[in-house]
Write a structure and sequence with these properties.
Elements (H helix, E strand, L loop, with lengths): L1 H8 L7 E4 L11 H9 L3 H21 L4 E5 L3 E2 L1 H8 L2 E5 L3 E3 L13 H9 L1 H10 L3 E2 H7 L4 E3 L5 H13 L18 H19 L4 H15 L1 H15 L3 H15 L16 E5 L3 H12 L3 E5 L3 H22 L4 H7 L2 E4 L10 E4 L5 H14 L5 E4 L6 H4 L9 E6 L8 E6 L5 H14 L2 E6 L6 H16 L5 H12 L5 H8 L1 H15 L8 H7 L12 E4 L2 E4 L1 H11 L10 H21 L6 H12 L8 H8 L1 H14 L4 H4 L3 H9 L1
Parallel strand pairs: 1-2, 2-4, 3-5, 4-7, 8-9, 8-11, 9-10, 11-12, 12-13, 14-15
Antiparallel strand pairs: 5-6, 13-14, 16-17
Helix pairs in contact: 2-3, 2-12, 3-11, 4-5, 5-6, 6-9, 6-10, 9-10, 10-11, 12-26, 13-14, 14-15, 19-25, 20-25, 22-23, 25-28, 28-30
């Protein structure tokens, strides 16, 4: 760094300096794997403080050294990349360049002056929003906000334009702006403080006790009231301890784990084939969500239903989803028409011979699915991928009446399909490597996080979480209030919704049906509740009927203790009433999920334990700031998890096998 500064600033022949990226990126920012090492090291905070000081010294030279500087932003300028660009005296970008400070997504804050320079370039309110969300700004928005001084129409014009601006500064023809000294956009202290404190209130609801959002706002506030230099000191003071915080360790782990997911051993060198025309069988909630998502992503989509009435309802569902998204994004109605142009509704197999992929999203009935796949083999071209969106059924059974098992795969979307980030890719022992590679490529184009898993009942996501609902049911049927369980899971574990809210969302009837399938596969270590059956008989199916465990006013659920009482009384008949603490509720509901995750690992259904972490977060909403279910278990202490499960197994003989720690978990505990 010192040598680079010397070379750039000393020679008289150098009039100005232009920074640009060597490849597609301007600069992507921090070395995340190195951040993880620092987060885990006992001296991490000290090393980071030293590194930050060196970085700030460099930014000072860029901003206020003897030569004017210009950032020629040729691609994404993220994190430290944007901080370097903001330290430059001007920024010139291409129309495809993007700008962002995503550090808060890693549990840290911008550490190279971002908390001070961004508010001075685009205003406090805009800077706070950009940093707390971590979302990148496209070029046009960045230019409008004042972050970028000039956009070039063609990439080839970027460097010449940036050099022209730099030389004009050197000649005194253009002012040399220093972001840290800018005052025109930061606004008044009163308005700035109002924006900061409003953001603090909003972020506190989402923070769940994590410190990074508050630390970021504190640094911005110091800069607002005491000046940029004091603000830089506050930024450094906050950054160093954050790197070692539990939330930073967890979020950095999640970031790296997510990027590992698409890497499947054995697929090296296999390129995904192009998928453009896709058929979806079934226009129900899931099928419609999948169709809408693909229309957003530019696919040609065929939607098939069993009759005209069902088809009409399915298309209406797709239309409603797209309309809601367009309204939320404030896009013109013409976008609806353009999207729907690529949809072909049908009740026949016409056009299926042109499909690259077919996704089956029909009723969970083995016989019907087997017939459908036999039909698909006949009407689709030999290279067409045949996928099922089943959430529980063994895929080998679905495809056993075909001769196309090498191109049959599970593509398990999570509801709502156009929102939830996970796509579970289930490969059987017959699924070809090419089809797996194609499926991963398809997931990436959809913007999904692909996790490749093995074929078993429940696959990985639903299998590891079946004990979650069953443990809660055991507690409820033995005297614990379901609303208390939900409160504890939300307040202590930070789950986005309680287990009974989740049951109401998916449907009580779906839960009963799934429990039957799971129980058939994993029998004696399952707890089979009766409560769900009683609710189903009374048509209390959850949100879709307006009442389940909760009573619904729109989507908002309200506890219904009086209405639920007779069903609880019936389900608890002949069972003992148990007394548990809030911490015991956490352990009895969450530790069995860890136990089942260990079984999935032992059976080789996932490539790495971090894949389970990704599945738990992106599929079931386990809090990202806890790093995923296995990462959280290690933080709790694997030996503690094992000991507590053994304790519950002994304490409650009727569910001894349900709580008993598996061999894999016991081995981990011994090593720990």
């Amino acid at each position: 760094t010192a040598e680079a500064k010397k070379k750039a600033t000393a020679p008289p022949a150098v009039k100005a300096i232009v920074f640009t990226g060597a490849g597609k990126f301007f600069m992507a920012g921090a070395d995340i794997p190195n951040l993880r090492k620092l987060a885990s090291a006992s001296t991490g905070a000290d090393v980071m403080r030293k590194g930050l000081q060196e970085g700030h010294d460099l930014m000072d030279v860029v901003e206020s050294g003897p030569k004017p500087t210009v950032a020629a932003v040729n691609g994404p300028a993220l994190g430290g990349g944007l901080e370097l660009a903001m330290a430059c005296n001007a920024r010139v970008g291409t129309k495809t360049s993007i700008y962002g400070l995503p550090e808060l997504k890693l549990g840290i804050i911008p550490g190279m002056g971002g908390t001070q320079r961004l508010p001075r370039l685009i205003g406090v309110a805009g800077a706070v929003k950009a940093m707390l969300s971590g979302k990148p700004m496209p070029a046009k928005l960045a230019a409008k906000a004042g972050l970028v001084d000039q956009l070039v129409k063609k990439s080839k014009d970027l460097l010449p334009t940036a050099c022209k601006v730099a030389l004009a500064m050197a000649a005194g023809q253009l002012p040399r702006r220093k972001a840290l000294e800018e005052k025109s956009r930061i606004g008044s202290k009163a308005r700035g403080e109002e924006a900061i404190e409003l953001a603090r209130v909003k972020s506190k609801r989402k923070a769940k006790g994590t410190p990074h959002a508050a630390a970021c706002l504190d640094a911005i506030k110091v800069g607002l009231f005491e000046g940029g230099r004091k603000g830089l000191d506050a930024e450094m003071d906050a950054f160093a301890p954050l790197i070692s915080s539990p939330s930073a360790k967890s979020l950095i782990h999640m970031f790296l784990a997510t990027r590992q997911c698409p890497k499947v051993p054995g697929l090296e060198g296999i390129k995904p084939r192009k998928i453009q025309t896709v058929a979806v069988l079934g226009g129900g909630t899931m099928g419609a969500g999948i169709v809408a998502l693909m229309l957003f992503k530019g696919y040609n989509v065929i939607l098939k239903e069993i009759n005209e009435k069902a088809l009409y309802v399915g298309v209406e569902r797709v239309t409603n989803i797209i309309s809601a998204v367009l309204k939320r994004r404030k896009l013109p109605s013409i976008a609806m028409e353009m999207g729907m142009r690529n949809l072909t509704p049908t009740t026949t197999y016409e056009g299926f011979d042109k499909c690259d992929l077919v996704v089956e999203a029909i009723v969970e009935n083995i016989g019907i699915k087997q017939k459908v796949f036999a039909d698909l083999e006949k009407v689709c071209k030999p290279s067409c991928i045949l996928a099922t969106n089943t959430s529980t059924i063994d895929i080998d059974i679905i495809g056993e009446k075909t001769n196309a098992r090498d191109r049959i795969v599970g593509l398990h979307f999570f509801s709502p399909a156009h929102v939830m980030p996970l796509l579970e890719i289930i490969r059987t022992t017959s699924t070809s490597k090419q089809v797996v590679a194609d499926s991963i490529g398809y997931a990436k184009r959809l913007g999904k996080t692909p996790v490749t898993v093995g074929n078993c009942v429940g696959f990985t996501a639903n299998r590891i979480f079946f004990p979650y609902g069953q443990a809660a049911a055991f507690l409820v049927e033995n005297g614990v209030c379901p609303y208390r369980i939900d409160r504890v899971l939300k307040s202590l574990v930070h789950m986005p919704m309680g287990v009974h809210e989740m049951v109401d969302l998916s449907g009580v009837d779906i839960g009963v049906h799934t429990t039957g399938i799971i129980a058939k596969a994993y029998g004696d270590r399952c707890y089979i509740p009766t409560m769900g059956r009683y609710l189903m008989e009374a048509k209390r199916l959850g949100q879709k009927t307006g009442v389940g465990y909760y009573v619904y006013q729109g989507r908002r659920g309200v506890p219904d203790a009086k209405g639920l009482a007779p069903f609880l009384q019936k389900a608890r008949q002949g069972k003992p009433t148990i007394k548990v603490t809030d911490q015991e509720i956490v352990e009895m509901v969450m530790y069995p999920v860890v136990n089942e995750s260990c079984r999935v690992l032992a059976e080789g259904h996932v490539i790495r334990d971090s894949d389970i972490d990704v599945v738990s977060i992106t599929g079931y909403g386990f809090p990202a700031h806890k790093g995923g279910i296995m990462f959280w278990a290690k933080a709790q202490g694997i030996d503690k998890v094992c000991q507590r499960l053994a304790h519950y197994s002994k304490t409650y003989p009727s569910v001894s096998k349900f709580f008993a720690p598996c061999d894999y978990l016991q081995n981990l505990a011994r090593k720990a």
